[in-house]
Amino acid sequence: MNHIPIDLTALARQEMTERGFAPDLPAAAVAQAATAKQQHQTGLEDLTALLWSSIDNDDSRDLDQIEWAERTAAGIRVLVGIADVDSAVPKGSPVDAYAAQETTTVYAGIHTYPMLPERLSTDQTSLGEGQDRVAVVIEMTVAADGGTAAHRIFRALVRNRAQLTYSGVGPWLAGQAAGQAAAIPAKVAASKELEAQLRLQDEAAHLLRAARDKKGALNFDRAELQSTVVDGHVTGIEGRRANTASRLIEDFMIGANEVMAETLRAAGVAAIRRVVKAPERWARIVELAAHYGEHLPAEPDAGALNAVLLRRKAADPVHFPDVSLTVLKLMGPGEYVATRPGAAEEGHFGLAAADYTHSTAPNRRYADMVTQRLVKAQLAGVTQPYTFEELDAAARHCTLMEDAARKVQRDMTKRIAAVAMADRVGQQFHGVVTGVTPKGVFVRLTDPPVEGRLMRGEAGVDVGDRVTVTLLSTDPQRGFIDFGR
After folding, report:
1. Residue 2 pLDDT more than 60?
2. Percentage of the chain with pLDDT > 90?
3. Taking the model in full, what pTM does it have?
4. Which of 49, 113, 218, 378 could covalently link to 106 via disulfide, CB atoms 3.0 to 4.6 Å apart?
5. How many other β-carbons are positioned within 10 Å of the β-carbon of residue 84?
6. Are residues 145 and 198 in the same domain?
7. CA distances, 306 to each of 66, 253, 285, 313 (Å)
């Protein structure tokens, strides 16, 4: 691949600054992080003997979540351990103040900008393999119908026994389910107990997912752009899709977040919820469904939409990621909302969840750390650490910065793609229209899944239309990729 002489790292830093982020840690936060570590208080349950494991990306070091399961008479008992970041980052401390401003780790493709100092996020508060760590544990028992009961949240000392990856576990689990031989990860091959653990966890995840499907949770299958970067240079790009292992973790994450939201609501605690409202462009979703010979009601209905999505996936799995992307674009982003005790549930349209929060990634999202403090205060029977006004301000700021982070990631993804596509000018590609705005019409290719602007032949198209385009030009400096019909 021909490398374009462009400093993507400098451009990423510029993007961060222009979007309101502060890439450099304040001196006080650096000083605090140098000695900060989790406080191992007395009275914690000791669960270090359990065979906990984590599954994440190949290069992940900021591990927020570990899992363990056992079969009981009532169903599959699942424990999800979440890193107790608050125990190392007190509210109001310099690191907390920085995290409260940034609110999220930003993955800019060429570089990652962590919300917390790396000594914390990838070490002292990360649930790394072989390390004793304090965790907030969310317990749920998954019944045969996918319903959950016996909810409990408590604090414990845990030890991750096996740090695994999506790329290793996913194909193996999928092969097991299909009755086919698949390469087994070395750590799994070395432990029959770990192998049984992962099979049991996968069984529980499938039950949870099936129950959500019945409620109308939306099933998507997106191809995310994955870049290979060596010494600051882009050496390749490809689409990466969810697999069996990443879905397992997502299923447990969703279940844990629902338990957290329900626990705080039952306790009468003001909290931050993760809300995804019914799509404002539902009429366009109805129109798209009709294009495929499907009927949707005039008013938003998650169950009806999910049925259409499942049928489209079965009918045309190759192009289903295009359909997924289109519906996601038309749904719009989620937001954080502060809720008072007893307030009406707003819910998460995409997950068909009446009550939902974010709590499983406190190393990477500030809203999760706030939620962690709320539940810890409830467990300890002490005064809540935030007023409603503070929660409202935090929720609004987290939503604002999440949007800013999404724009940084989008713009850097475009620049990386422009570099990678520079030697393919003149080639034709298949794609789907992802945006029709005053600024122009935008198309995302099927393979590789890069997005650009339609500069010629854009009249009369709308979100969801499939098109064949020719790559006209790329501008890596500005992240421009131009297509024509």
Report:
1. no
2. 72
3. 0.89
4. 113
5. 28
6. yes
7. 29, 20, 12, 10
